[in-house]
TrEMBL record:
Domain FHA: 222-272
Top-level taxonomic group: Bacteria
The keyword Phosphoprotein is assigned to this record: yes
Key words, A-Z: Phosphoprotein
InterPro entries noted in UniProt: FHA_dom (IPR000253), SMAD_FHA_dom_sf (IPR008984)
Classification lineage: Bacteria, Bacillati, Actinomycetota, Actinomycetes, Micromonosporales
Pfam families in UniProt: FHA
Protein's name in the database: FHA domain-containing protein
């Protein structure tokens, strides 16, 4: 069982991000891991977060969608967690995959929702535009929409880059305590390092299933291929035929303003499939703009889309993180 739990935690790790351009929702780790009614497992159980991430994937029909997770600093040393769970939480925090707050994670969720406009995965009544409440359902956790009231997203703070005096970059500062950009973990003023580059999220689809999301920004091109020296590696998801067809560095993506461009760098070529079904075939060093509803086809069944868009042969999100979980985490609710 220990090996299975480690696999679940590793799978959760791949679905965590503090980049608001990539994520689909905000979540408080502490609230979720204590929601024992979701699975009937331990009173405090970190893999429970995986069930909620899976539920978001089903809700958005995107098996690669990450979450922006926050955790109370006290949780990292909680006696309610196993030593392995605490070690994993600390690693996520140190690697910048979750945001750690000094106290009051619910207050921080409300602030993040106001800045980003993202929904919150929570059962608590929060003053945000949308919460999605995780509840037990047939076959696993489901999310129930609970619309709220909130003003328009205050995105101005996202246009700047911030750094904590300890040297770590801070994606989204807190403004609640002083009205000035402050580190949510340390409570100290942040240095403004200038404009944040514009970015767009892109989803990788293999065999109709979303595999991962990544961001392309305006600072530098990003290479996608079988196994590029730097960039997005597709190799682990490819079958033998795709491994033979797709080049080590297959395409280069660039962003200018809000316009995404793909440049072919491969041996076998790339196709841009327009929303109307027409196809633009690219040979080496040829470029093409990628429209919001277009698909970039590296090989049959291996595709790139703007995040939130689906290729024509996409399949419904299923399986997911908890497919590796011990059976105790898959209890069905009792039907009256």
């Amino acid at each position: 069982m220990r090996f299975e739990i480690s696999k679940v935690l590793d799978a959760i790790e791949r679905r965590l991000s503090t980049d608001p351009a990539l994520v689909g929702a905000l979540v408080d780790v502490g609230e979720v891991l204590r929601a024992v009614d979701l699975d009937g497992g331990r009173p405090t159980y970190l893999p429970r977060l995986g069930a909620v991430v899976d539920a978001l994937a089903v809700k958005l029909d995107d098996a690669a969608v990450p979450v922006y997770a926050i955790a109370d600093k006290a949780l990292l040393s909680s006696l309610e967690l196993t030593s392995n769970e605490k070690m994993v939480l600390r690693r996520w925090a140190d690697d910048g995959q979750i945001e750690v707050v000094a106290s009051d994670p619910a207050r921080r969720l409300v602030e993040l929702a106001g800045i980003t406009g993202l929904p919150v995965l929570s059962r608590h009544p929060l003053p945000v535009a949308m919460t999605m409440a995780p509840v037990p359902g047939l076959g696993g956790v489901v999310l129930i929409d609970r619309p709220g009231t909130a003003g328009p997203a205050q995105t101005a703070v996202l246009s700047r880059r911030w750094r904590c005096p300890d040297g770590e970059p801070v994606g989204i500062p807190t403004l609640l305590a002083t009205g000035q950009p402050t580190c949510p973990r340390h409570g100290v003023a942040l240095a403004d390092e200038g404009p944040r580059p514009v970015s767009q999220a892109v989803t990788v689809w293999v065999g109709g299933t979303a595999r991962t999301r990544f961001a392309v920004d305006a600072l530098r091109p990003l290479v996608v291929g079988r196994s590029p020296a730097q960039g997005v590696m597709l190799g682990p998801w490819l079958d033998d035929e795709s491994l033979q067809w797709i080049s080590r560095a297959h395409v280069e993506l660039t962003l200018a303003g809000n316009l995404l461009t793909v440049t072919d760098k491969s041996t076998n070529g790339t196709v841009v499939v327009r929303a109307n079904g027409s196809r633009v075939e690219l040979s080496r060093d040829q470029s093409e703009l990628v429209g919001e509803a277009d698909t970039v086809e590296l090989h049959q069944g291996v595709e790139l889309t703007h995040a939130g868009r689906r290729p024509s042969r996409a399949v419904s999100a299923g399986g997911g993180i908890m497919a590796e979980a011990p059976t105790i985490a898959l209890r069905l609710p009792i039907r009256e």
